[in-house]
Amino acid sequence: MMADIQHTQTHPKFTYSDKTDGQKPLDLIQSVKKSAMYHWENLLPACGIDIPAKGKHGTCPICGGTDRFHFIDDHHNGNWHCRQCDAPNYGDGLDLVAKTSRISILEAAKIIADVLSLPLPELKLAKESIQTTQLIAEKVAALMALTVTGQSPYLTSKGLNCSNQRLLEDASLLLPLRTLDKKVTGAQIIKPDGTKKLLSGSQKKSAFIALSEMEEYPGIVIITEGYATALTVSWLHQGTVLAAIDAGNLLSVAKAVRECWLDTKIIIAADNDWHLPDDLDKNGKPIKNIGKITAEKTAKSLNGWVTLPPTEYKADWDDYRQQQGVEIARQAFAQGLYQPTSIKKKAAVKLNNNTESSKLTLCQMGASQRGEVLLARYNSDLALDGASESVHHYDGVVWRPVSDRDLRREMVAAFMEEKLPHSPHGISSAVDALKLQLPMMQPPEHHLIGFSNGVFNLKTCQFRPHSKNDWLLLANDVEFNSPVSGETLQNHAPQFWRWLNQATDNCENKADRVLAALFMVLANRYDWQLFLEVTGAGGSGKSIFAEICSMLAGPSNTVSASMAALENPRERALIVGYSLIILPDQTRYVGDGSGIKAITGGDEVAIDPKHKQPYSIRIPAVVLAVNNNAMSFSDRSGGVSRRRVIFNFSEVVPENERDPQAARHLLAEQQKSAEALDIKRGTDSLVDFCGYLIASDEANGLLIGNAEIMPFNPSKYLYLAYLAYMKGNNLNKPVSVTRFGMDMSGALAEYSQQYLRKKSKQGIRSNLSLDIDTAIEWMPKLTRDSLPEK
């Protein structure tokens, strides 16, 4: 209460010298803020800062944005907000002076202190006015406490059955008046016989009777004169309905609505004060149709709409409903909507169809119609991805995702081109409506390889131009050229041929496998459920291979990530939409590889993008890991090993492999190659241990045993042999006997061998025996001495 009263007192003389001398900085700032309260509209221009009128948008004095700055001053401290400034993009008057002048808050306070020494105009709002508003609100609240809920005789006489009305003791209706800032400014009382009066002290201007709670962003607001008319109109048309009490208050209520919601459609449900052309009033002057004239004047001032009961007698919409019924009244209400002809139409936007809506301005359109305008700005080449709910645009080559932010900015551009006002809610609702109108995207065909100038069909071995019906999401930047007769890699790509032979040590089989790997990247054969791992010392060519893969996939389709990113839903959001995922220079990885296993296996994985709804999706991408040292996986189920293709040199990407099955088989051979097995043995101790074993077709080999068996005899017990191997190679953390039994099958599978077991009198026997010639290097000395000589 005191904060609202202080500004009505005499403004104190405030000068820099007598207020700042000897004063602490914080005290000065607080003192200036207190003295400047309620005066910022005059203080800021005095400081050389131009601001729009309170509640309006205008040019930002900080960033220079033309229509994003809003001087709110809702707490009387010069509060402002700019949608274009860098964060923090809001503050009070003192912040505005500091940011505009690029000075500190203290320096800004000193400037304001000097300005405060000038005479400032007195504010119009007086203490008595505030007290009056509070008194009437208290008076209405006291009356409301005396009411009961029931059916009003007045409404019953009109055929309006509303049993939730607030009634006084004499069955009179008590209808509170409110403003858009939810202040109670009075009340209307309607007696059972229809007599109406305002409660003494009521302030009618800009106040209304609301039929329901106001929405945060109403799309349509309908304003009537009387309360009964408002109840009827709520049955005739969708929207928020307000009763302005009488025709004289229509304009002030409508202006308040327009200032609050720039893009809301405002309809004036006017009373038809019809009369004969020659009718005169009691003073002998021609009678005017006040209801129609006032409604049209209101609509003209704020780009609104009018609808009038189609009668040749005096009637409001409630009268018309009583005489014609609800259905006929509903049709007449919609068909009677018009905008006064004297309104200067602003740049009507034409839609694709030839409907009446094509004559509307953006401000007059509904959300769905604005969505059509937005679609037309993209030449109707938009579609919706069902999994991510993201919009994609066909650019003549591929369907590329368009962020909601870009869509909103495009919608804003349409408004700005027509020099029409807009609101964040109106822009967002147009984007939401657009998404509901778009066709759903179809999955792309795997047999099509996208190039910059067309697509190559692997089934027909033909090249043709792009088509949006291919639904391609990815295409490389390489231009396809038809092969020339007699063309060979050796003669027409000598540098590549030289690199390929050097990398493969002139091994023809290995060169074929490298080419198959490159084809896998080029054709985006993620459906092979394999991933590539390139290892080697620095300078061995790994980076060259990765660059060639990136060229074939297209730089815009390549993303760099890490193994950790593949396993984290939040970080996985960064790799969605790419065809090649490169894991460069990984630090030594040790883990179960759950992320890379799920992605390459074609499983749906969780995606948790920032500020968006989480979803799950299959990521159609080839994964390429580039490491100095091979990754170590703890998974023994075979889920990783059967997908892992290892090269210990960098990979290269040509385009001459057209048989996907043959290429896939070549990669499968590379999985089982000796060099790949050597790398796995170097990173997995159990796989390496299996290399010292000989497997037979029957379980007639070593007993399994356990760690407690004494004496320690690794030549008899398999698990003790494993412990001896670990100790002999100075390796820590051997797996338990239970885990050993579970993981042996996967480890032996790397050698294409099976792990067999059966019960015997001595215990569980395996089909494995030690290869003494190789195991001798880590066997304990006592055991070696006891072995029989060959």
From TrEMBL:
GO terms for biological process: DNA replication, synthesis of primer. Pfam families: D5_N, DUF5906, Pox_D5, Toprim_3, Zn_Ribbon_Prim. InterPro entries: DNA_primase/NTPase_C, DNA_primase_Znf_CHC2, Helicase_SF3_DNA-vir, NrS-1_pol-like_helicase, ORF904-like_C, P-loop_NTPase, Phage/plasmid_primase_P4_C, Phage_T7_Gp4_N. One of its GO terms (molecular function) is nucleotidyltransferase activity. CDD domains: TOPRIM_primases. GO terms for cellular component: DNA-directed RNA polymerase complex; primosome complex. Residues 1-20 are annotated as: Disordered. Residues 509-662 form the SF3 helicase domain. Keywords: ATP-binding, DNA replication, DNA-directed RNA polymerase, Helicase, Hydrolase, Nucleotide-binding, Nucleotidyltransferase, Primosome, Transcription, Transferase. This is Plasmid and phage DNA primase. It comes from Xenorhabdus japonica. The lineage of its organism: Bacteria, Pseudomonadati, Pseudomonadota, Gammaproteobacteria, Enterobacterales.
